[in-house]
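Adenine deaminase
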Amino acid sequence: MSAVSMQEFLEKLPKAELHVHLEGTLEADLKIRLAERNNHPLKSSTAEDIRRGYVYHDLPSFLALYYEGVELLQTEQDFYDLCYAYLAKVAQQNVLYTEIFFDPQLHIRRGLDFGTVIRGFNAAQEDAERDFGIRSNLILCFIREMSAKSADETFTQAFPYLERPDRSRIIGVGLDSDEMGNPPAKFAKTFARAKAMGLHLTMHCDLDQENTHEHIRQALQDLGSERLDHGLNVLEKPELITMAREKGVTFTICPSPNDVIRPGRSRQDIRDMLAAGLKITINSDDPGYMQSVYMTESLAKAQAAADLTPEELIQISRNAFEAAWISDAERGTYLAALQDFAQTYRVVAPA
Ligand SMILES: [Zn+2]
């Protein structure tokens, strides 16, 4: 056994990330490079100024910043650079595997081709795997404030890529952005098409949204979502807790945005989820816009807030590998690495 500090334990822990938006990993310095490359004027000229402008207090004010950043992504090379930067960053944090959300509608509506986006991502995924050993897949997200028709048309446009997940690495579909008035049921048809093709399903049920309990119910019961992204409001309804437990749903919790939307509630939220016997994972969400809090930092936040023990942290990491949409052979490799880690490292308090 090797004695390490909690910080070192968190750094070395083998990890999988299941809730990160690629467009949300756009760091201020890459924004500046893209703006120069594409001749796109920026309001701020330094990375520090850009980051100072990241002030938000709820989902719509966050999305306004996010959509502004998306405009900078123009070419296949831009999408490559975005994806490679994220993968290089988290590979250093011992993330062995990641399932990454992306929002094709935000690019298609600006006149870009689906292929431009996906070719850039796929090339970066291949190169990052070669350079760092990190494996990754993609989850195509629908923008919930856009129409059901737009989601379905995007699905049709993506069809050739969805048919070949071995090439495109798109293994599932998700649902994100502004939840108010946009329940999962709005997209039932497109999710049914995805499910019929053998794609995996997940949906955001963001914190403290209007009709959140009905949205969670629809996602789990009517649409058959395999995971819930955020979904903490499940705690307020015993019948939803039971449903989530029975269906073996995994929750992708993100401490960084939660701290903004529910300040001071992290400890109780995490402890209540664990006490309810629900499977949770810890993830970053949009680290480019959230003080560069990636996986290790997100786990450190959760650990500090809820006094998570080394055993609980290993279980949280195990939950992520178990909920990942990969082959059993690949999963076995990651779980063996985690097992090795658990037998090698022991946390000691600093002297
Ligand atoms: Zn999210």
